[in-house]
């Protein structure tokens, strides 16, 4: 009980140096900017960040990178028109990068949240991203063995949540949120609207509260 | 080369005409993913009456045209993170579902750009392999092996004049034997286990193409 936090700072307490942090969002859609800012304020470093991109512009994940708190980024698409913060760090050799196909990134976190030890996946067969990985032929098709990605903490953004942690999302800002929510030891959601228990249609809940440990209302 | 249509007197296709030719080849009612960049323009040539439904990897079916003015919503973007709209009957889903529908063989066609395509349909489009390049794969590998058909839109020749339709890709691979059709400004091709077949030429002839593109010559 007591999942509702008074502010983003309280919502991210307990994240330690060296933690693996799953950060939701596809670009800035669904990016939990308030929670990431709070993480910067917390002062922890040596983080491994798992996110689809490696920061856009100067806010959210890009600000965390600029603050020098991240040792390694695991993502599918670091290089973008506005990824200059990451680009500079990468070219200066100040940050590690593991590139993962976008679907594998999602499925590896899904596996972590679903108790799957590893899975055979056809994505990346015959490419450099499968180098050194175990493969197996099943029914004549080749697959690569992929392992789960588990987070110490997941920071996600949602449209509305209730005090039990049930969440609904808005449009394509849903993206990685529901998957990351299942894959971390502690899941923290920033929600645009905090609503009373009973106000969310149970048929429409996307992330059931069992996956959410803390939530904080941040408004628009 | 039975079935090949030559238009030696027509100018090569411009980008808009290429998009129109690709659009013509998409089956009515298909579920289609349009890659970032040039393939996005295919949407401009899809008559709504044909019932083609666009998938965007960041979690949506039923994607509509680009959003302008008051319709711009930061929570509603395409894979290129550009603001888009939703059509009646649209559906949103999380990232693991979005890629499950690719990998699971539910998506009919995806259209991507390429650095190179090999004569057996290998695709290279994510990384030049240059030492200073920042690798970024996004959803390309998942789409390459997941969609039932992969169409490529690209220039037939690189800036240095070498063909991009090659015996073997020299750039890092995205997927093996996955491309079924290639659209260029000078010709369209079918690619498969039997090699490359010229479907239609624009501003050139098969004989002339064969002189400049060895994989065509070998099979002519």
What is this entry, summarized?
The complex is a heterodimer of chains A (220) and B (220). With 220 residues, chain A is α/β, with parallel strands linked by helices.
Report how far apart the termini of chain A are.
Answer: 26 Å
* Name of the top-level CATH class of chain B: Alpha Beta
What would you call the shape of chain A? globular
| Strand-residue proportion of chain B | 25-35%
| Largest interface (CB < 8 Å) | A-B, 50 and 41 residues
CATH homologous group name of chain B: Glutaconate Coenzyme A-transferase
Strand order, largest beta sheet of chain B:
1-13-12-11-9-6-2-3-4-5
The count of DSSP E runs of length 2 or more, i.e. the number of strands of chain B, is: 13
| Total number of beta strands of chain A | 11
Structural class of chain B: alpha/beta
CATH superfamily of chain A: Glutaconate Coenzyme A-transferase
Q: What would CATH call the class of chain A?
A: Alpha Beta
Whole-number tally of structural domains of chain B: 1
- Broad shape of chain B: globular
| SSE topology string of chain A | HEHEHEHEHEEEEEHEE
User: How would you sum up the major sheet of chain B?
Assistant: 10 strands, mixed
Helix content percent band of chain B: 10-25%
| Annotation field: number of helices of chain B | 5
Describe this structure in words.
The complex is a heterodimer of chains A (about 220) and B (about 220). Chain A is of the alpha/beta class and about 220 residues long. Chain A has helices spanning about 10, 35-40, 60-65, 85-90, 100-115, 175-180, and strands at about 20-25, 45-50, 70-75, 95-100, 120, 135-140, 140-145, 150-160, 165-170, 185-195, 215. In chain A, the strands form two sheets. In chain A, strands 1, 2, 3, 4, 8, 9, 10 and 11 form an eight-stranded mixed beta sheet that branches. In chain A, strands 5-7-6 form a three-stranded antiparallel beta sheet. With about 220 residues, chain B is α/β, with parallel strands linked by helices. In chain B, the strands form two sheets. A ten-stranded mixed beta sheet of chain B has the order 1-13-12-11-9-6-2-3-4-5. Chain B has a three-stranded mixed beta sheet with strand order 8-7-10, with no helix packed on it. The longest helix of chain B has 11 residues, at about 15-25. Chain B is globular and about 50 Å long. Chains A and B meet through helix 4, helix 5 and helix 6 of A and helix 2 and helix 3 of B.
């Amino acid at each position: 009980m007591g999942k509702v936090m008074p502010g983003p700072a309280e919502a991210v307490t307990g994240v330690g140096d060296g933690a693996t942090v799953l950060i939701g969002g596809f670009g800035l859609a669904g990016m939990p900017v308030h929670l990431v800012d709070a993480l910067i304020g917390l002062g922890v470093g040596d983080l491994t960040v798992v996110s689809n991109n490696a920061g856009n512009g100067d806010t959210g994940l890009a600000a965390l990178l600029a603050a020098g708190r991240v040792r390694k980024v695991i993502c599918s698409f670091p290089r973008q028109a506005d990824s200059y913060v990451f680009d500079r760090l990468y070219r200066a050799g100040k940050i590690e990068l593991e590139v993962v196909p976008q679907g594998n990134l999602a499925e590896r976190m899904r596996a972590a949240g679903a108790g799957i030890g590893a899975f055979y996946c056809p994505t990346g067969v015959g490419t450099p991203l499968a180098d050194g990985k175990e493969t197996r032929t099943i029914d004549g098709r080749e697959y690569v063995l992929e392992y789960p990605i588990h987070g110490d903490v997941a920071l996600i953004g949602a449209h509305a949540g209730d005090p039990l942690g049930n969440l609904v999302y808005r449009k394509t800002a849903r993206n990685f949120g529901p998957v990351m929510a299942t894959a971390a030891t502690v899941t923290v959601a920033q929600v645009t609207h905090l609503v009373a228990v009973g106000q969310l249609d149970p048929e429409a809940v996307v992330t059931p509260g069992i996956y959410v440990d803390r939530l904080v209302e941040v408004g628009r | 080369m039975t079935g090949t249509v030559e238009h030696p007197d027509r100018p090569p296709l411009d980008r808009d005409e290429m998009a129109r030719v690709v659009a013509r080849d998409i089956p009515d009612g298909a579920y289609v993913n349009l890659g970032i960049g040039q393939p996005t323009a295919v949407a401009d040539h899809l008559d709504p009456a044909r019932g083609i439904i666009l998938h965007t990897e960041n979690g949506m079916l039923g994607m509509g045209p680009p959003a302008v003015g008051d319709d711009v919503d930061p929570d509603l973007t395409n894979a290129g993170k550009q603001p888009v709209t939703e059509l009646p009957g649209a559906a949103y889903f999380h990232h693991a579902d979005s890629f499950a529908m690719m990998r699971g063989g539910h998506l009919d066609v995806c259209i991507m750009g390429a650095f190179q395509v090999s004569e057996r349909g290998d695709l290279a489009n994510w990384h030049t392999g240059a030492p200073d390049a920042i690798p970024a794969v996004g959803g390309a590998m998942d789409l390459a092996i997941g969609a039932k058909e992969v169409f490529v839109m690209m220039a037939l020749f690189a800036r240095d004049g070498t063909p991009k339709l090659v015996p073997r890709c020299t750039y890092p691979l995205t997927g093996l034997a996955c491309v079924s059709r290639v659209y260029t400004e000078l010709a369209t091709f079918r690619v498969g286990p039997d090699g490359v077949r010229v479907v239609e030429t624009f501003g050139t002839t098969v004989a002339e193409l064969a002189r400049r593109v060895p994989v065509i010559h070998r099979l002519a």
